[in-house]
Amino acid sequence: MAIKNILTVDVEDWYHICDVEHILPRSSWDRCGSRILMNVEKILTLLTRFKVKATFFVLGYIVERNPDVVRMIHAEGHEIASHGYGHVQVYKQEREEFLRDLLRSKSLIEEIIGRDGEKVIGYRAPEWSICDGGKNSYWALDLLAQQRFLYDSSIAPLRFIGIPNAPTTPYTLSTPYGEIKEFPPLVMRFPLGNLPIGGGWGLRIFPYRSIRGTIDRFNRLGHPVLIFCHPSDFDTFSPPVRLPWIKRFVCYGKIRTTEERMIRLLNDFEFISIKNFILTEEYKIPIQNAPSLSPSPLRREGWGEGKSSVRC
């Protein structure tokens, strides 16, 4: 049986860009023209075409100002999870500030989806910002587990914006409040470090044959991969601000290839939401215990026991 991979969307607008507060201060956001509705509609149309359900990590700021976007996603049967409220990296927040941001977004989302008895069970930090070292924010996992979140998708096995030696396949972390599952984005092994081919600029720029080959290798070993995108990835709009060159590259490099890449992926592989991945019977598997905040591989029958990464 074919492995079902995971598709996710970070629902934020074009001006939600980290570390450009000197160009796009938060006080200006309400004056920026929103393009979220038209771009989410593009994604929903594509997913309907391929009969795929995905996980949408929605920013609380978006929920508050564009609740119809959430209603539209929810009506299509997709999972709604939290992307926080204010799009601030976790390592820039104190614990109390992070908790307020988390619960504010959760409450806003559940005001809409809670009418159908649904709860928010997943979280993704802005810019994969649950990190260790000098940007240590592992404490956020304790708070997520305490608030009964079942999973997180905020630890990227990458240099610069993540934890380079983190597992590259789904795994479980133990906290004082119980276990929480972690879902990292797809990366490709490279001598100088993992490459971010699972979404954003990496998905747009690296050769598709390399991306497909990496997914095939993970899948042959019984591992799913996680792909992500943003609504702005489907938009050729040029922002009316002068971004630093690295931000412009990350946000808009080869932006016109996004839809073509996503269509090829949806043609070549099966995808489901994180919630369905967790709840689908074939993935209900024993999770081996792990020391507090030390990763252990998520295993199912047929997965390589103890293999937390794949050499590609």
Could you describe the 3D structure shown?
The C terminus is likely disordered. The strands form 2 sheets. Strands 1, 2, 3, 8 and 9 form a 5-stranded parallel sheet that branches. The chain has one domain: TIM Barrel (Alpha-Beta Barrel), CATH 3.20.20.370. A hairpin with a 2-residue loop joins β6 and β7. It is built from 10 helices and 10 strands.
For the record, the CATH class is Alpha Beta
Strand residues, percent = 5-15%
SSE topology string:
EHEHHEHEHEEEHHEHHEHE
Structural class: alpha/beta
The number of helical segments is 10
> Level of helix content?
25-40%
N-to-C CA distance? 22 Å
Instruction: State the fourth-level CATH superfamily.
Output: Glycoside hydrolase/deacetylase
What's the architecture in CATH terms?
Answer: Alpha-Beta Barrel
**Principal-axis shape:** globular
Quaternary organisation: single chain
Radius of gyration: 18 Å
Instruction: Report low-confidence residues grouped into runs of 5 or more.
Output: 284-312
> What is the CATH third-level topology name?
TIM Barrel
Mean pLDDT reading: 87
Largest sheet: 5 strands, parallel
Number of domains: 1
Q: In total, how many beta strands?
A: 10
Output the keywords:
312 residues; alpha/beta; TIM Barrel; five-stranded parallel sheet; 10 strands; 12% strand
Question: Mind sketching the topology for me?
Answer:
Blueprint: E1 4-11, H1 36-50, E2 55-58, H2 60-65, H3 67-75, E3 79-82, H4 95-113, E4 122-123, H5 139-146, E5 151-152, E6 171-175, E7 178-182, H6 200-205, H7 208-220, E8 226-229, H8 245-252, H9 258-268, E9 270-272, H10 274-279, E10 296-297
Parallel strand pairs: 1-2, 1-8, 1-9, 2-3, 4-5, 5-7
Antiparallel strand pairs: 6-7, 6-10
Helix pairs in contact: 1-3
